[in-house]
Amino acid sequence: MKHYCVNEQEYIIRQAVPTDAEQLARVRYQIDGETEMMDRVQGEALLTERDFCTLIESDQQLSNHLFLVAEIDQHIVGFLRCEGSQLQRSCHHVELGVAVLKNYWGLRIGQHIINQAIEWAMTTKLRKVSLKVVEINEKAVMLYQKLGFVEEGRLKEDKLLSDGLYYDTLLLARYI
User: Which parts pass through the membrane (predicted)?
Assistant: First the structure.
C-alpha cells in the first residue's frame, strides 16, 4: 500500500481484494460512460460483482497478474490490471489496463498506479509491459511516453467513436 497527496487530496494505491468487487463493478460501469477512450461503451461486456471477485482471486494466484486499486476515503476511484500469459513463450510479458473516474483526473492517480505496476514488473522479473490506447487520447499517450513506453505498432481504423470516425489504436510497450 502506498499513500499519495496531490493538490491536497490524499489517496492510497493498494492491491485489490475480493471485498472490492462490488465497488469495482460500479466504478468500471461508471468509467465506461464517462469517456470514449475505453474499449467499451457503457453496459457492454459488463462484469458483475461475482465476476470481479473471481478475477481478483484468480489474479492473486498468478505471479504475472496484478490488480491494483486507487482509493480515496475508502472509495475506489480507479484501478489497474496487468494480465500475463501462462504460456512459456509469452509469460515474460503483461498487458496493462488502467482507468480513473473523471472526477479524479488531474491527481496523478494514473501516473502513480502505473509506476507501482512498473515497480512490480521489475521485482517480478518481467521483461515487457504493454498497453493499447486510442490515438486521440493525447494526455494518456503523453503520460505513457513520460513513463518510458514506446510505440510498437498501430492498429489502423481500430475504434469507431461517436463522431462517426474511425481512429487508430496505438500499441505501446515499456521494456523492463
Answer: none
In tens, the pLDDT along 126-154 reads 999 999 999 999 999 999 999 999 999 99
- Domain tally, the chain: 1
- At position 31, the amino acid (one-letter code) is I
Helices (H), 20-137: 21-34, 49-61, 109-123
With contact defined as beta carbons under 8 Å apart, do 85 and 93 qualify? yes
- pLDDT band of residue 21 (cuts 50, 70, 90) is very high
Q: What is the CATH number of the domain that holds 58?
A: 3.40.630.30
Task: Domain of residue 7: give its range.
Answer: 2-126
Does the predicted model carry a pTM greater than 0.85? yes
**DSSP3 helix / strand / coil % (the chain, rounded to 5):** 30, 40, 30
Position 160 in a domain: no
